[in-house]
Amino acid sequence: MIAEATPPLEPAHGGFARLHFASFLGLFCVGVYATSFGPALPFLAAHFGVSLDRAGLLITVLFVGSIGASGAIAVYLHRFEARLLALLGLVIIAVGALSLAATSSWAVGLLSVGIIGIGDGLLVAAAHSAIAETASDVPHGINRLNLWFAFGAVAGPVWAGAILATRGEHAVVYIGVAAVSIAVAILLATVPRTPARSHQHAGRGGSIRSRTVFMMGAVLFLYVGAEIGLGSWVSSYSTQAFGAGVMGGALVTAGYWGALMIGRIVSGSLFARGVSPVTVLLGSIVGSLLTSSTLALADGSLVVGVGAAFGTGLFFGPIWPAAITLASRGSASGAPAAMVTIGNAGGILFPWLQGKVLVAAGPGRGIALTALLCVLMLGIVVAYRRGQLKSETN
Question: What is the pTM of this model?
């Protein structure tokens, strides 16, 4: 049986409520820039004079920077105040976004996205740690945090698509990202300091090396690769498979992330009703396997393809909050940051690989990688559930 988590701090004063709201807005910002790359990749490739699949390395570099920063929080920086780490992350994101907007050098472009990644890792890990330590209802709090990511993920492709369709260049997109990041950083700076409590609970209630953390980390490694990979390439997939234009591909991307947002609203309701995160996780992975397989087999059918893309986003929605919730129960306080680090490591490999396959072998085979990752996730969660049932009967 999974050990009960150490009771979180109750949000007894307005500072925690404001901290939570600022954290939510931080994840909104993450959603905006992370999903802007979907419509922007062809334009970035043309701007830097590289092929489309090589431009996919920008996603890899983003996640290299992210796992380095979130890993630092998991290992050591969790001892410091989460609010300060999140604020620092937002400032770094703004610097990287402005650099990406200004440069015409491919090498500097890669470096700029790597800087955004460092800020991303700090912000995402710190925001998850803040919620895990201060929310009175951790599953609901983490789900709400990631719901705000989904809000941003809907806005990102629409914002990028509208700018790219009318202006044909990416600079304004990332100047906007920098402006939003600075605005949220200013808000976060006004939140009262909260106790740096993470190190006080390390070692209580479990270890971040526990079986649950290990297996949920494996799920998130595959999931982030699947979620970001599909979100990054579904615009190009729509262009190649259905003949969609720039704005059409952006709207398909926004619809995918919008469906993911709805999935997180549904999972929040399920958690509130007492449905086990394991049950939510299993159902979500089975559903996403079916819909992503349908997407890969759509064979140029616009209606089937768009419906399957939306369905995949819908079922993807609950996976991250369910897995993070399971890993956070009874584990050391570095567990949320460790989960972010392990999960984001999947973003280094799979989106780049998916782009290579999509360009070389066609859109259907490129999207088939998403279904394969769902198969692997399902195998891990089934094995986890069997071990859990065995432990409960002993």
Answer: 0.76
> Which segments of the chain are extended strands (E)?
none
| Fold category of 14-393 in CATH | Growth Hormone; Chain: A; (1.20.1250)
| Closest among 85, 74, 101 to 26, alpha carbons compared | 85
Phi-psi sector, 2: left (phi>0), alpha (psi -120 to 50), beta: beta
Structural domain boundaries of the chain? 14-393
Q: Would you call 82 exposed, middle or buried from its count of C-beta atoms within 10 A (0-12, 13-18, 19+)?
A: buried
Q: How many residues make up the chain in this entry?
A: 394
Cβ(145)–Cβ(23) below 8 Å? yes
State pLDDT tens for residues 160-196: 888 988 887 889 999 999 999 999 999 999 887 655 5
Helices and strands per DSSP (H, E), number in the chain: 15, 0
Taking the CA atoms of the chain, what radius of gyration do you get in angstroms?
20
Residue whose C-alpha is closest to residue 127's, from 220, 24, 33, 31: 24
